[in-house]
Design a protein that fits this description.
The chain is an alpha+beta fold. The protein has 6 helices and 4 strands; from the N terminus they run ααβαβαββαα. The protein has helices spanning 2-22, 29-37, 52-63, 79-90, 108-116, 119-123; strands at residues 43-47, 69-72, 97-100, 103-106. A 4-stranded mixed β-sheet has the order 2-1-3-4, with helices on both faces. The chain is globular. The protein binds glutathione. Glutathione binds at residues 48, 51-53, 83, 94-96, 107-109. Glutathione is lined by residues 48, 51-53, 83, 94-96, 107-109. InterPro entries: GLR_AS, Glutaredoxin, Glutaredoxin_euk/vir, Glutaredoxin_subgr, Thioredoxin-like_sf. This is Glutaredoxin-2, mitochondrial. Monomer; active form. Homodimer; inactive form. The homodimer is probably linked by 1 2Fe-2S cluster. One of its GO terms (molecular function) is glutathione disulfide oxidoreductase activity.
């Protein structure tokens, strides 16, 4: 039973790795959509409506009166695929994934840290 469990866990990791490395078509329509959204606004947030880290990032921009374009991935049928594409682009599929002037700047904690260090305002120029 113990060995079955270990093999099960190893198989899960194997298939998760396989999914991320082989199933993302960076030339496909979802990747094209993601690439088109990133330069659409000065601040673009790939978000989920219920996500506290996304709320945290949005609040940072709200306090700066900086408008942003948020895509709520939990409200889209292609949300999972968008996250797979974002993993290829940014190295992780967690939300939020925040872009400023077309550049990836991080997740919610990163945005907050940038603001606290006074670096966010510079990136927004
Ligand atoms: N340290 C990350 C944490 C982000 C995080 O844990 N996000 C959750 C949602 S609140 C997530 O992406 N969960 C996996 C998923 O929704 O696919 C950040 O500050 O952005």
């Amino acid at each position: 039973m113990k060995y079955f469990f270990i093999i099960f866990i190893i198989s899960c990791y194997f298939f998760m790795g396989l999914r991320s490395s082989t199933m993302v078509n960076m030339e496909g329509p979802v990747a094209k959509f993601v690439k088109e959204q990133i330069p659409k606004e000065k601040v673009v947030i790939f978000s989920k409506s219920y996500c506290p880290y996304c709320k945290m990032a949005k609040e940072v921009f709200d306090k700066l009166s900086q408008k942003y374009y948020a895509l709520e991935l939990d409200q889209r049928e292609d949300g999972e695929e968008i996250q797979d594409v974002l993993k290829e682009i940014t190295g992780a599929r967690s939300v939020p994934r925040v872009f400023i002037n077309g550049n990836f700047v991080g997740g919610g904690s990163d945005v907050k840290a940038l603001q606290e260090k006074g670096e966010l305002v510079k990136l927004l120029q």
